[in-house]
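[step 3/7] fold_predict: job queued, chain A
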Amino acid sequence: MTSGVVPGVAGAVEDFDSFYQAHFGNTVKMAYGLTADLPEAHDIAQEAFCRAWSRWRDLSGFDNPAAWVRKVAVNLARSRWRRLRTQRLSGHLVRERPEHVAALDPEHVAVVAALRKLPAAQREAIVLHYLVDLPLAEVAEQMRAPVGTVKSWLHRGRTALAEELRIDFREAVVPPGAEQVFKTVKNRSRVRTTAALLLVVMLVIGVVALSRFAQGSPEPIPIDSPTPAPSSTVDDPMAAVDWTRTTLDFRVTTTGCPSGWAKFAAADGGASTSKDRSTYPAATLWPEKVAVGDLDGDGLAEAAVSMFCRRSPESDDVPEQLLVVKRAADGSLATVAISDVRRNLTLTAWILDGVIYMDSIPRDSVGGRRTPGQVEAFRMDGTVLRAVDPADRYPPINVLNLSDIASRLPCRPRTSDLSPSFDKNLRATAGGLRFSLSDGELPRVYASFGRNGRPYLVLELGCGEASAEQTRNVILIDQVDGRWRAVDVLPDQRLREVRDDQTIITQPLGAKAPVSWTWDGRAFSRKE
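[step 4/7] structure written:
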């Protein structure tokens, strides 16, 4: 078999086939434990291996390519929950089930039904450790959590499931053959090629038609071509909550915060349970800092809310709490998890893959805070929010790919293939030029520009020759394939403020007035 062979990799088909046969069963096993749907689990595993084959040139050199496939499968399973949520909210659900998948007996179904009752973190840990047989260290690496936290999840899950996990359903998983993976990837490649050719033909026809039309028209008619905006808010009722008018049941709370039912009202630019400062303990939140997304894997969104609680009017210390709010079946809202007291001040927050990420600063030292781009991260563990290491998703900026903006930098790099390696002081030398990164000592440096769950990082880049003064430039940075990459630049400007999720303020060099900018997913544009 030669179709679909990865160029330049000897024996790629044979290597991949062996890899596929060895790991397909466990991948289905894991996906089934996460979805409780065997046909869907087969589809998820097949899609994960199709993506692996498309990248086999690189993956085959990884120490553990199976971990990459597992991560893809977990993400696909989570996407399934989000899809089911949307379908459920819209009132219809259409299913097509493959006919070739063997049915599971009632014992197997009972096990997975029990798994579905567990919190998402416990369920995923149990599936990876007991069903996929991964050691604790690999489970911790896969879930981006400390080993001790994983042990806690496993202990609680075991207590809930007792002896049921001794059932083995792997016999029901029969790999359909790697040939199907090769065929699927090859067909996708043909579709992409055909689509590209059609696009070129349509563009040529369009240019010719416009040219002829212009020749026969004394005054060209302008054509409106609005630029597409990035995807916006989460499609879930939680995203529409008016926090300045909501009533919240503080089921999970702590000393200094309200307990039981409390009503919020607009106050001081945010929302408070004591608008007239007469009811204590009181809680205050700012709606723009609320993050919405699925945290427990049930397919419905929760809200991560940064809240200040005050025991009395005389309280000097007003610590910030991070709470998770969930919507009950009757539409009421209640707190279901809470963090320890936080000494940081939240600037903005977002939810990605079941983890809350927060751009924040220490409350007592705004000036010399964290390294630019550094964030906090929390994951739900029952009724507690545990801090986790954010480095897998948001690592330190050691290398920054500037290739997309190199030609627009005033320092004129000699090459467009530019990826400086920065030291701990965020300074670098590459191509005969010096580079530096800075957040301009601003508190907030992340803005979503309408893209939910994955905000962009906004920093100031200095560049110049060793003997010359560095030019200052505002750059927009994204995470692409787990690496930092600059996607746009405002040359010869200083960063003054990341005002909100849609606006940044810059100071053009030599100009007196600052300028407001937004980003439409492709380029910056001025806001009047």
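[step 5/7] annotate
The first strand starts at residue 247 and ends at 250.
The chain has three domains: 12-91+102-179, 237-387, 400-527.
exit 0
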